[in-house]
Amino acid sequence: MKKCLLLACLFGLIGLFHPAAAQQIPSQDIMLSQYEYPFPVKFISVHAQGQVLSMAYMDVLPAKPNGKTILLLHGKNFNGAYWDSTAAALRDAGYRVVMPDQIGFGKSSKPAHFQYSFQQLALNTKALLDTIGVKKTAVLGHSMGGMLAARFALMFPGTTEKLILENPIGLEDWKTMVPYMSIDQWYKGELAQNYQEIKAYQLNSYYAGHWSPAYEKWASLLASWITAKEYPLVAWNSALTYDMIFTQPVVYEFKDIRVPTLLIIGQRDRTALGKALVSAEVRAKMGNYPELGKKTAKAIPGAKLVPLDNVGHLPHIEAFSRFIEPLKKFLAQ
């Protein structure tokens, strides 16, 4: 149990652990080959770091196109499938919607040897857009996807028409506050994961005590491949991406973003890496999204901030109507 709680504690889970009976979750292989995504899945080959990797994506075309595209970038504990409602609403509004699974996530390759960087993920994503013929797009990133979206906008400003950051992590530099966690330590924590730990972490850090059936399928999906024979490979890739998040802040470059930017920030969110490793005084200052949202809006030239009161880390799931309306309004401007 102590090992299982390690990862949750590192993100600031303090109590409220629910020792309910284990869920009967269908087991998935590490490519989620039996899990049906909300839209048809295609694949491209990514040539990177001396190997050929498979990158999954959904490319949703509207019945009545408005000529615009939006790229949706998923968070650390998710994949492209959790954009289901968002993609459907944007498609119905006339947008082409592209949703990749980044390498190491979802239905994409889980390489045994790979140096993760946001630059590399941005290059992979640009290769996908080039392959499907998208020259300009709005870019929406949630959580870890927000860090990637910011990096993409910095690397490819000519491709990025607008930038939307939904409760992005990385609005503060955790390595200036928290002792370094080695990849081996992250890996050990990932190997010890189970459904109850995943749900308890999300209940506290993401939803702050709020839970509904809408969240259940995503916690269950994250737990579904833990029993797979190759799960250690998933755990290893996850450990590498934690290290990427911790060691590669983009916060210092927000001032250099030169595209119209919208911040949608759930105000109940308190997500931060390493809270359990610091003093109570430092911990109290970490992951303060109401303050971090204001600070980031000032740092990015011309950025607009939409604060969502009493909403946690996943506005597009927890408060969809309050999320989608300002998003569509910003895209239409």
From TrEMBL:
Give the range the annotation lists for the signal sequence: 1-22
Any idea which GO molecular function terms this record carries? monoacylglycerol lipase activity
Q: Where is the AB hydrolase-1 domain?
A: 69-271
One GO term of the cellular component aspect? membrane
Coiled coil regions, renumbered to chain: none
Enumerate the Pfam families for this protein.
Abhydrolase_1 (PF00561)
The entry's keywords: Hydrolase, Signal
**A GO BP term, please?**
acylglycerol catabolic process
* PANTHER family named among the record's database cross-references: HYDROLASE, PUTATIVE (AFU_ORTHOLOGUE AFUA_2G14860)-RELATED, MONOACYLGLYCEROL LIPASE
Q: What is this protein called?
A: Alpha/beta hydrolase
